[in-house]
Amino acid sequence: MQFVTVYVLLYRYREQSFTDFTVFVECTRFDVHKTVLACHSGYFADIFMQHNCESCASSCSMKLDNDLGITACIFRAILDFMYSGSK
Fold first, then answer.
1. What's the rounded Cα separation, in Å, for the pair 23 and 8?
2. 68 or 70: which carries more pLDDT confidence?
3. Structural domains of the chain, with CATH
4. pTM for the full model?
């Protein structure tokens, strides 16, 4: 059952279906699922708790600061791990 859930999440991410949050890193847009980010990252969980995106009429978004040292390539690798559990 766990494998099916991971597979479905990865499929939804790759198909960009049912995404509800957008992260901009450098000039790259990442459409993601808040639940996945919040489950795997205290950083995003805190952001979602502080800023209630449920009140947005459409998808919410944020831009990651360059101060964090995360490039678009690194963020894509982080997302791949969050969604699939592997590289």
1. 21
2. 70
3. 2-84 (3.30.710.10)
4. 0.79
Token readout for 25 is: 């890193």
Q: Would you state the structure tokens that stand for residue 8, as one six-digit string?
A: 């479905």
User: Which tokens sit at 73?
Assistant: 């390539």
At position 49, the amino acid (one-letter code) is: M
What is the residue-wise DSSP string for the chain?
-HHHHHHHHHHHHHHT-S--EEEEETTEEEEE-HHHHHHH-HHHHHHHHHS-GGGSSS-EEEE--GGG---HHHHHHHHHHHHHS--
The pLDDT tens digits of the residues spanning 12-62 come to: 888 888 988 999 999 999 999 999 999 999 999 998 888 765 555 445 888
AA identity, residue 33: H
